[in-house]
Design a protein that fits this description.
Layout (H helix, E strand, L loop, with lengths): L9 H24 L9 H13 L3 H8 L1 H4 L5 H20 L6 H11 L5 H4 L5 E13 L5 E9 L5 E8 L14 E8 L8 E8 L13 H14 L6 E13 L2 E6 L4 E3 L2 H15 L4 E7 L4 E7 L4 E3 L2
Antiparallel strand pairs: 1-2, 1-4, 2-3, 4-5, 6-7, 6-9, 7-8, 9-10, 10-11
């Protein structure tokens, strides 16, 4: 079986390390002048910072830099910005200890900066055969490139997976996978200390409607899962939150998802704006199973099951 860990030339590694050293110096400068100073910077400033990362062959980090101007428009911009800068710093610290890390965590670091594993090599792996439900999809529209995340779960293995796709706005996405599809096929993971992203070796769409897959019992169990994920991969930004027996709660202007133990997580404002009332109508006040993206502070619903079968929110 072929070695699936990403490889990088000595020259590119040197370029990446130089770029991260420059990024670290910028973070230290920001800590001295304060976050408020960044709100005064024009969009060209952030594009220049992103371009410096691209020049250092660390383009995978550039998109996070380009997202900062949008963050600064949010009501909780300080919290979002501080979280993003902290992830940058944590990532840099990891890279500075690169040789002491496990091969799996080294693979995480390299893939985060944009060093890819060839799909042909990935396809040589055995893979996990199962029936996979596409729990939901989320598309992020960018200035240059659109991104789509498709989240899946095995009905028998209970394994989670995520398909990450990029496309220019005029081209659309390559994958024929859609929310709510039930697929039969073999799934392979990219190398990682916490495997999540992957691809299908082979698949076919099944005609039958999918039952709801197995989920965690409550948010306490989810946060145990989340803690394990961060322990394995500290700079991980997203995890799948898949729980049973929750309800939608609206209190004044805030929308929440509440579990059977009365623990509540806030919903993403963008989801509420576009799909909040649709979710309210679909659940009708009944308890439901939920799958969504958890970014550490907000929950973005992807799909639900109220009466045993799956309904997705694109």
């Amino acid at each position: 079986m072929a070695e699936i860990f990403p490889t990088v030339s000595a020259q590119r590694m040197a370029n990446i390390q130089a770029g991260l050293a420059e990024l670290r110096q910028w973070l230290e400068d920001v800590s001295l002048v304060g976050l408020a100073e960044l709100t005064q910077q024009p969009s060209a400033y952030w594009e220049q910072r992103a371009a410096r990362l691209v020049d250092a062959q660390a383009g995978g980090l550039a998109e996070s830099m380009r997202q900062i101007p949008t963050m600064l428009l949010a009501e909780d911009w300080q919290e979002q910005l501080l979280r993003t800068l902290a992830r940058f710093y944590l990532f840099i610290q990891g890279f500075e200890q690169f040789e002491q890390l496990s091969p799996a965590l080294q693979a995480d670091l390299l893939q985060r900066v944009g060093v890819n594993v060839k799909k042909a090599v990935l396809m040589e792996q055995e893979g996990e055969a199962d029936h996979w439900l596409v729990l939901g999809q989320r598309t992020i529209i960018g200035e240059r490139l659109d991104l789509r995340r498709s989240w899946i779960k095995g009905l028998h293995s209970h394994q989670e997976g995520m398909i990450l796709e990029y496309a220019f706005a005029s081209q659309g996405f390559d994958s024929a996978i859609s929310s709510g599809h039930l697929l039969s096929g073999k799934w392979v993971y990219y190398p990682s200390s916490r495997p999540l992203r992957g691809m299908f070796k082979a698949k076919e769409k099944l005609a039958q409607e999918s039952p709801a897959p197995q989920a965690l019992p409550d948010f306490a169990a989810f946060f145990d899962h989340y803690s394990e994920s961060l322990q394995a991969l500290p700079f991980q930004r997203l995890v799948l939150c898949h729980v049973n027996d929750v309800r939608l709660v609206r209190s004044e202007e805030q929308w929440w998802i509440r579990d059977k133990n009365q623990i509540s997580l806030p919903l993403d404002e963008k989801f509420v704006e576009k799909k909040g009332w649709e979710l309210m109508a679909a659940t009708g006040g009944y308890p439901f199973q939920l799958a969504g993206e958890w970014e550490g502070h907000r929950l973005f619903p992807l799909g639900i099951s109220v009466h045993g079968f799956w309904q997705s929110f694109n």
